[in-house]
């Protein structure tokens, strides 16, 4: 029987998340502080969802079936908002919100924010500065493609996130190697050789920044702009250090915000959080990607707004239609390092965590990689060793502290030994 709609049910939200997400704790904690009722929808088959006592098991890749599941649930338990914690469910959240009449981005906009080819086409048509790009297919001859593109270029899968599969090539020989590597990765992800396309883009020189914002009726509010002090020039594009506030000139920051606003409008994004990645050079800012979600991993913990409000609380308030009194970030400088995986192999030990935590301005060191588990670096990998957090008076001080802490960490990784070598013993 459908429950009567009360003030409490108007504060019930559905959070869609993958089983391995880093982000569940922050959103659940924020929801609890706001006294929201949370229903968790996890990317699990129904049988496993029942086994693990998950309230709602949905298959993120099967939009129609999962949408039906959500609609049936919502008929009995009305929802005030449907949010995707990760990229993986952003399209499902958009479809569900549209079907339930909730304010969110259209399914078409959500798809464009996930599909890099569609994103590029819409950005180009909308006038947002972005790299020149071409579409090719896994079934194409890599030698022929290599002879037809300009260099340096970047090969990029359409739907993988976190820089997975993104590889720079400086000449035809490097292109062929990169093509084969990307092809192996996509085939391992279940993509068919025939019918799967990817992008080849011109490499844009310059430095990278990341903008965290929130959209309300299509209007962008900038929450913060992160500098990325480490060069990201390839051959892979592994994120490392983010610091805020940005040390860029005010005019450059304004140009970046305008560029992101134009990109969001080009895709049709109108509501909720956005995380945008850009390159900046003497010609100005260039859009790389924009996602309709907040920053990934544990990075959001360095952000604080208003009277101690965390990023997830701000997002949830916005989702249920509350007026956000202030989006002013705490005035202290803050930073985070996503600790890169240096080599493939099994993680056997981690040393120096206590020493790293003792570095002045360091507020936390979280090692998220599990001991005795295999590590896979980019471009195939999808995770980091962990995170280093810092807070101080200036972004420069924060960056220095993070680098000092990172130098104190040592990871014992048992490299993989080829089978033939072991047999020769």
From TrEMBL:
Domain ATP-grasp: 120-320
Domain of life: Bacteria
Keywords from the named record: ATP-binding, Ligase, Nucleotide-binding
Transmembrane segments: none
The UniProt record lists the keyword Nucleotide-binding: yes
A Pfam family annotated for this UniProt entry: ATP-grasp_4
InterPro entries on file: ATP-dep_AA_Ligase, ATP-grasp, LAL_C2
Protein name: ATP-grasp domain-containing protein
Record organism: Ktedonosporobacter rubrisoli
Species classification: Bacteria, Bacillati, Chloroflexota, Ktedonobacteria, Ktedonobacterales
């Amino acid at each position: 029987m459908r429950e009567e709609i009360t003030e409490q049910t108007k504060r019930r939200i559905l959070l869609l998340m993958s089983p391995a997400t880093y982000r569940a704790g922050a959103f659940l904690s924020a929801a609890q502080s706001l006294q929201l009722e949370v229903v968790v929808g996890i990317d699990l088959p129904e049988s496993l969802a029942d086994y693990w006592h998950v309230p709602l098991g949905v298959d993120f890749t099967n939009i129609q079936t999962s949408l039906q599941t959500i609609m049936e649930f919502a008929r009995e338990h009305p929802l005030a908002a449907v949010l995707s914690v990760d990229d993986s469910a952003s399209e499902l959240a958009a479809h569900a919100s549209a079907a339930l009449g909730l304010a969110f981005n259209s399914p078409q906009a959500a798809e464009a924010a996930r599909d890099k080819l569609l994103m590029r086409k819409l950005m180009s048509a909308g006038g947002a500065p972005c790299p020149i790009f071409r579409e090719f297919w896994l079934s194409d001859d890599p030698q022929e493609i290599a002879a037809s593109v300009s260099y340096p270029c970047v090969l990029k899968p359409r739907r993988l996130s976190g820089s997975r599969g993104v590889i720079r090539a400086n000449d035809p020989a490097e292109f062929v190697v990169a093509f084969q590597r990307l092809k192996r990765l996509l085939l391992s992800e279940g993509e068919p050789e025939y019918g799967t396309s990817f992008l080849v883009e011109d490499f844009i020189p310059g430095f990278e920044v990341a903008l965290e914002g929130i959209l309300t009726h299509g209007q962008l509010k900038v929450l913060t702009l992160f500098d990325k002090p480490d060069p990201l020039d390839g051959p892979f594009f592994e994120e490392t250090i983010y610091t805020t506030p940005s040390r860029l000139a005010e005019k450059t920051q304004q140009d970046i915000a305008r560029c992101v606003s134009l990109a969001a409008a080009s895709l049709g994004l109108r509501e909720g959080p956005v995380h945008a990645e850009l390159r900046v050079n003497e010609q100005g800012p260039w859009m790389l990607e924009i996602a309709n979600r907040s920053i990934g991993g544990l990075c959001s913990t360095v952000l604080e707004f208003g009277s101690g409000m965390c990023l997830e609380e701000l997002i949830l308030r916005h989702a249920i239609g509350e007026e956000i009194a202030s989006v002013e970030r705490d005035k202290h400088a803050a930073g985070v390092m996503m600790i890169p995986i240096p080599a493939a192999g099994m993680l056997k030990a981690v040393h120096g965590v206590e020493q790293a935590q003792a570095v002045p301005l360091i507020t936390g060191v979280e090692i998220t990689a599990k001991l005795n588990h295999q590590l896979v670096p980019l471009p195939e990998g999808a995770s980091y060793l962990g995170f280093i957090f810092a807070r101080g008076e200036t972004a420069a001080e924060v960056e220095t502290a993070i680098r000092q802490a990172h130098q104190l960490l040592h990871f014992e990784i048992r490299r993989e030994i080829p089978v033939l070598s072991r047999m020769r013993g």
